């Protein structure tokens, strides 16, 4: 629970979470979402999907819901089931025309029995999959207009768009039925994965990866650009381009999940382009996602960042194309349009003019998407609201990044101040410990010295004989000093006073030490000698101890002074 350890651990965990959430595959997984937002992802999404799918199918009575295919997709609120078609009867044959997407625009005008028979033959020859998807936060189209738009998408005709067999919606979400391709999507090809395996096990850590040739990259990229240009010309943005929504059939690209935009669900690459304020238009989003597709097809692995930093192992012409979409400068200044990308030299050099060789002379094979005026206006308003919400989210992300940078700077400065304060505290503590140890040692020495001094001052322990001996010694030494003064010239008064004080102090110190040695026990005298000669005693404490000893000795000598023991000395002054 140390604050420095908690701060360090918090930074490490934040870096780990950022790394996980920057990976679209891990960020879209249920464990990651439950960790970040446990309240919103605690319920069972599968049971709700089964209930809604049964309610939608019960109203028509054309399909039978089969077993679930598991979490083969990346969306948590999108579920996949096997489905089979019931034999049509005369009562429901008229309704099958409205909801059937395998019929073409010309076939809708035919009889109901013929259309139902063709739909039954198509479902018998291929495996169908039912997909239930809940509405997203960008669902701005009301239910009435949404039904008409889904009807138009069921009748959509384009060689590069996978047709819908059936579409139905309620207040909770939308149900669609389309053909299931056993070879999987483009992402399955690049990761060499089995389509029916769980999404996280297929793409989280694939056993192998395979990059496409430059010709394949150019061919598939050109077809994707053409179908995107077609949709935008009809006023319908795609917005959900990634390798999991692309299938390849005989070198012909087909896009999936064409209905996702009107359902308001977020894009696969939204965590990436939400970091760039210039990428908020519907066309710019499709261009940005197309750059990620090109990179993944050419390199064999997806990008783990929102921008590309260094591109290697590819021709220079492809490198220039990728940098025009995914570089930091391009994301700041603006991305090229779809028409500008289609006119790039890379596609002219590596891609032939036509790849999909289906005959287009038949009226049923020509691209076709018819939307009513109300539907176009509803889609236009939904586009504006979606772009505004994206811009608000981009502003909040920018502000959050700014706050994080400021916090990092403040935390770094605070850490510096804390480290300096900690170093000062450690230095003070070490200094206090040293002073404490010295005081303890000096305290023990001072106590022993005071004990020795106390033995001198206590008159009960000093015999009169010892005091007389000390006085006689002092008297003799005084007379000897007086004789020496006769031989030397008389000093000046100041010098005489200072020398007299110094000699008196030295004499008293000397005789006091002798008296202590004579009057104290042998052990005490030896301890005093050792303590006085110990190098650990400081100069201040020595002076205080000596001053105390001199004072006590001076008092004793004054009290016991005998004037009659002095000898008369003649002077020549």
Automatic annotation (TrEMBL):
Extent of Polar residues compositional bias: 528-545
Molecular function in Gene Ontology: actin binding; ATP binding; phosphatidylinositol binding; protein kinase activity
Segments of this protein annotated with the region Disordered: 408-442, 481-548
Gene3D superfamilies, per database record: Phox-like domain, Transferase(Phosphotransferase) domain 1
Protein location: Cytoplasm
Residues annotated as domain Protein kinase: 94-371
Coiled-coil features, chain-numbered ranges: 376-403
Main location: cytoplasm
Pfam families: PK_Tyr_Ser-Thr
Keywords in alphabetical order: Coiled coil, Cytoplasm
SUPFAM superfamilies: Protein kinase-like (PK-like) (SSF56112), PX domain (SSF64268)
InterPro entries in UniProt: Kinase-like_dom_sf, Prot_kinase_dom, PX_dom_sf, Ser-Thr/Tyr_kinase_cat_dom, SortingNexin/PXDomain-PKLike, WH2_dom
Keyword field contains Coiled coil: yes
GO biological process entries: early endosome to late endosome transport; endosome to lysosome transport; negative regulation of monoatomic ion transport; protein targeting to lysosome
Domain WH2: 550-569
Top-level lineage group: Eukaryota
A cellular component term, taken from the record's GO annotations: late endosome
Coiled coil keyword on record: yes
Protein name: Protein kinase domain-containing protein
Source organism (scientific name): Stomoxys calcitrans
High-level lineage: Eukaryota, Metazoa, Ecdysozoa, Arthropoda, Hexapoda
Gene: 106081923
């Amino acid at each position: 629970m140390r604050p420095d350890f908690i701060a360090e651990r918090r930074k490490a965990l934040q870096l780990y979470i950022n790394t996980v959430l920057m990976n679209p595959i891990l960020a879209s997984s249920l464990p990651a979402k439950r960790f970040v937002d446990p309240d919103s992802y605690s319920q069972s999404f599968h049971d709700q999907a089964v209930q809604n799918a049964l309610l939608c199918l019960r109203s028509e009575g054309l399909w039978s819901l089969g077993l679930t295919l598991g979490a083969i997709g990346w969306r948590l609120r999108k579920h996949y089931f096997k489905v089979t078609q019931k034999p049509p009867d005369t009562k429901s044959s008229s309704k099958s025309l409205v909801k059937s997407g395998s019929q073409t625009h010309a076939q809708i005008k035919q009889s109901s029995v013929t259309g139902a028979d063709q739909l039954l033959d198509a479902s018998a020859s291929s495996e169908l999959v039912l997909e239930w998807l809940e509405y997203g936060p960008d669902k701005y189209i009301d239910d009435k207009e949404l039904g008409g738009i889904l009807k138009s998408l069921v009748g959509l005709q384009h060689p590069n768009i996978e047709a819908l067999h059936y579409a139905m919606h309620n207040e909770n979400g939308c149900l669609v039925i389309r053909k299931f391709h056993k070879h999987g999507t483009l992402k399955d090809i690049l990761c060499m994965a089995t389509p029916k395996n769980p999404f996280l096990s297929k793409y989280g850590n694939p056993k192998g990866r395979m990059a496409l040739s430059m010709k394949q990259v150019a061919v598939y990229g050109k077809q994707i650009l053409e179908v995107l240009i077609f949709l935008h010309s009809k006023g319908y943005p795609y917005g959900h381009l990634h390798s999991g929504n692309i299938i390849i059939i005989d070198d012909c690209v087909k896009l999936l999940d064409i209905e996702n935009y009107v359902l308001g669900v977020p894009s696969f690459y939204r965590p990436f382009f939400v970091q760039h304020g210039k990428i908020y238009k519907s066309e710019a989003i499709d261009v940005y996602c197309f750059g990620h597709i090109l990179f993944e097809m050419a390199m064999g692995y997806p990008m783990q960042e929102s921008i590309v930093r260094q591109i290697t192992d590819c021709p220079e012409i492809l490198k220039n194309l990728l940098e025009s979409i995914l570089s930091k400068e391009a994301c700041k200044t603006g991305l090229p349009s779809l028409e500008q990308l289609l006119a790039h030299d890379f596609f002219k050099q590596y891609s032939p003019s036509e790849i999909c060789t289906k005959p287009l002379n038949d009226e049923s094979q020509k691209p076709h998407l018819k939307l009513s005026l109300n539907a176009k206006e509803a889609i236009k308003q939904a586009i504006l609201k979606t772009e505004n919400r994206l811009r608000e989210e981009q502003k909040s992300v920018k502000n959050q990044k700014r706050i994080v940078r400021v916090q990092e700077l403040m935390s770094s400065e605070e850490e510096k101040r804390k480290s300096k304060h900690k170093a000062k505290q450690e230095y003070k503590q070490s200094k206090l410990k040293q002073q404490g140890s010295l005081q303890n040692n000096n305290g023990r020495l001072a106590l022993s010295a005071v004990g020795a001094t106390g033995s001198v001052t206590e008159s009960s322990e000093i015999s009169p004989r010892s005091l007389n001996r000390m006085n006689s010694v002092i008297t003799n030494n005084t007379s000897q000093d007086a004789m020496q003064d006769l031989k030397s010239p008389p000093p000046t008064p100041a010098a005489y006073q200072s020398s007299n004080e110094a000699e008196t102090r030295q004499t008293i110190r000397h005789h006091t030490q002798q008296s202590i040695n004579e009057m104290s026990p042998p052990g005490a005298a030896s301890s005093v000698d050792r303590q006085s000669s110990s190098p650990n005693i400081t100069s201040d404490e020595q002076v205080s101890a000596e001053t105390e000893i001199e004072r006590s000795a001076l008092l004793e000598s004054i009290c016991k002074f005998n004037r009659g023991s002095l000898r008369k000395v003649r002077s020549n002054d």
